[in-house]
Amino acid sequence: MPTRSPATHLKRRIRTEMAMEITQMHSQWMFPNDPAESIDSDGDGVGDNADAFPLNPYETVDSDGDGVGDNGDAFPNDETETGDMDGDGVGNNADAFPSNPLETQDSDGDGFGDNSDAFPNDPSETVDSDGDGVGDNGDAFPYDSTETVDSDSDGVGDNADVFPDDPSESSDSDGDGFGDNEDAFPNLQSEWKDTDGDGVGDNNDKFPMNPDESKDSDLDGVGDNSDYRPYDSEVQTKEDLESFPLFPVMGAIVVCLGGLFVLQTMLNKGSKKPRRRTRIQDDEYDYHEEYDEDYQYEEE
Q1: pLDDT at position 190, please?
Q2: 128 DSSP 8-state letter
Q3: Alpha helix (H) residue ranges in 204-294
Q4: Closest to 52 (Cα-Cα) out of 32, 34, 72, 33
Q5: Which of 36, 130, 173, 286 is the most exposed place for a label (fewest CB within 10 A)?
Q6: Whether 125 contacts 119, CB under 8 Å
Q7: CA-CA distance, 111 to 269, in Å (whole number)?
Q8: Rounded Cα–Cα distance for residues 93 and 84 (Å)
Q9: 286 phi and psi, to 5 degrees?
């Protein structure tokens, strides 16, 4: 370090003394009636003794003692706050969003301010797009207010899913308890299965295992399609008809016809009235109808 010459020291001492004299003269002029003040280093009109910031002409008081003058302190009476960057009335230290005037607090710490957080106390949720009370993250249908859960993950919400625990079914159009996908007759409540695939449900199909038959009109165990005479339980094939015994049938017919003939004859006989003859002249007689049981002859 270079040594200063005696002349240099002298010059510095002279300047210091002159400054002190000037300051003393200035102070006496500034505070002539205030024995407590003598110096105003920053020239702000407040003596250094009373000035909390004697070297800062813009500040004189620090009401909350936080080291920031009242003029520059947004919260002069709050020692924990000094600035309010976004001007929302909440100090930067307490403001979770110091640069966002719309937000100040994040109760659940999820990074979304309480004012815009639909679930301010649930860190797993922030938005409820469909307004159903269930957050989008937990809502299987975030844009459908009628649905929130899809238990079987089939894409149909539980509220609309008739089979909420069956991923293969969701609707039952005919209400028969069988899902439309499984039900061969989704719009017919009385049927749901067609084992032989003939278009006739098993419940109404007399031959549910035979795709060629579904009816048996004469209940002979042979389907109408293959039954030679579907309404005659005695005949199923043409051969049955040809081998059917005709003589007993013909005999029965003859007996029936004979009986009818005898009956008709008896009826006709019973309906005839006996006649009475009356002699008119010799060897001439007049016959009259009578109801008597025996013939009677009268001569005149």
Answers
A1: 97
A2: -
A3: 238-242, 247-271
A4: 72
A5: 36
A6: yes
A7: 121
A8: 9
A9: -110, 125
Residues of the chain with pLDDT under 50: 285, 287, 289-300
The alpha carbon dihedral of 67, 70, 75, 76 has a sign of positive
66 domain-assigned: no
DSSP 7: H
Residue indicated by tokens 């031959």: 207
Instruction: Fill in the amino acid letter for 171.
Output: S
pTM for this structure?
0.56
Q: Which two tokens stand for residue 29?
A: 């002029």
Encode pLDDT of 96-141 as tens digits: 999 999 999 999 999 999 999 999 999 999 999 999 999 999 999 9
pLDDT at 278: 53
- HSE, CB side, 13 Å, CA atoms: give it for residue 161: 20
Q: Are 133 and 141 in contact (CB under 8 A)?
A: no
Total number of domains constituting the chain: 1
How many whole angstroms separate alpha carbon 90 and alpha carbon 202? 77
Any domain includes 181: no
Q: Determine the structural domain holding residue 270 and report its residue range.
A: 248-298
In-domain check, residue 293: yes
Instruction: Decide if 253 is inside a domain.
Output: yes
Residue 117 corresponds to which amino acid?
A: D
The amino acid present at 269, given as its one-letter code, is K
Residue pair 55/68 in contact by the 8 Å Cβ criterion: no
- The pLDDT value recorded for residue 196 is 96
